[in-house]
Write a structure and sequence with these properties.
Length: about 325
């Protein structure tokens, strides 16, 4: 679980977005893509998902500068139908392909009630939750899976290792003053022999979830078709994604749906919490509280992220806001 950093500097969200945009524009990536990366990274930190926010700036910067990730990808359609679309990320950062995929899925869902998209041949998409939230803001249910399509397994490896860590998010909108339900997590669990002896079913569930995410993103997305991994031009582009948008109004009236969601969230909040926790919340509740606080008081920038950005900004000649 992500926890608020203890060694942080608070920075206004808009100021932080501009800083991340300026850093990536100086790499250079296009102004449009640099702006989008800044928006999505800060959106992640606003929810308190520290592991997938601006702490990743150094990784992406290094991959761009080394040529391992395409700085100017041409994200294009491979196949398209009324309710579906398949995209290639052209070796670029997954944020660009993922954002376009969910935007297209949402547009299709407005017309047909459901829209699904796949992406392939791109780098990391960051947290899966931010793509689900794109749909949620449009009164839609949003799903996102990310992974890859491994075709070579080490016979000596334990079966749960073959699934790797597959991110997935399931988001359902609620009313404006209530937390949405957002399950934003990965499916992998570190193997522990004693824990496995007590609860083997947990490991088997995680293995199943991981392979489903990899198949729905990598295999369905065509990861095995696009490039030869031995000769690929952009070696970090080994990930794929799956994005689904369901339009609530095509099933039930939106307000009635949200009223019911509010009732669910409220009733859970009145339950007795687990030992060691102050309140009973469904996934999305703590992140809802953090986002409101961080928009008001500034986004916590942890010490490692601050040092990384300072180093990179110095190399690129980008001014710092602190």
């Amino acid at each position: 679980m992500n926890k608020p950093p203890t060694d942080s500097l608070r920075v206004d969200a808009d100021v932080l977005r501009k800083l991340i945009r300026d850093v990536f524009a100086a790499v250079p990536v296009s102004e449009e893509h640099a702006t989008l990366i800044g928006e999505l990274m800060v959106d992640t930190d606003l929810r308190g998902v520290v592991t997938h926010g601006i702490i990743q700036v150094k990784r992406y910067y290094s991959d761009f500068r080394s040529g391992a990730t395409n700085t100017h990808p041409d994200v294009r359609v491979l196949r398209e139908a009324a309710g579906t679309v398949a995209l290639t990320g052209d070796g670029g950062l997954g944020y660009i392909a993922g954002h376009k995929a969910m935007a297209m899925a949402i547009d299709k869902a407005r017309k047909t009630g459901i829209g699904a998209a796949t992406t392939t041949y791109h780098e990391h998409i960051g947290s899966a939750g931010k793509y689900a939230r794109m749909a949620m803001r449009q009164n839609m249910i949003g799903f996102c899976f990310s992974g890859r399509s491994p075709r070579r397994f080490d016979p000596a490896a334990m079966v749960n290792s073959s699934a790797d860590t597959a991110p997935m998010a399931f988001g359902i909108p609620a009313g404006p003053d209530h937390p949405d339900l957002l399950v934003d997590s990965c499916s992998n669990i570190t193997f522990d022999e004693d824990f496995f002896a007590k609860y083997p079913e947990i490991y088997f569930r995680c293995i199943g979830y991981s392979h489903m995410a990899n198949i729905m993103s990598g295999t369905l997305g065509g990861q095995m078709l696009e490039v030869d991994p031995e000769t690929v031009r952009y070696p970090t582009a080994n990930q794929s994604g799956f994005y689904l948008a369901l339009s609530v109004e095509h099933f039930v009236p939106v307000e009635d749906f949200k009223d019911d969601m509010d009732g669910i969230m409220d009733s859970v909040s009145r339950m007795e919490p687990y030992p060691g926790f102050e309140a009973a919340r469904l996934p999305g509740g703590p992140e809802f509280d953090r986002e409101r606080a961080y928009r008001r008081d500034g986004v916590p920038v942890c010490g490692q992220a601050k040092r990384n950005i300072e180093q990179i900004a110095g190399e690129l000649g980008v001014d710092l806001p602190w």
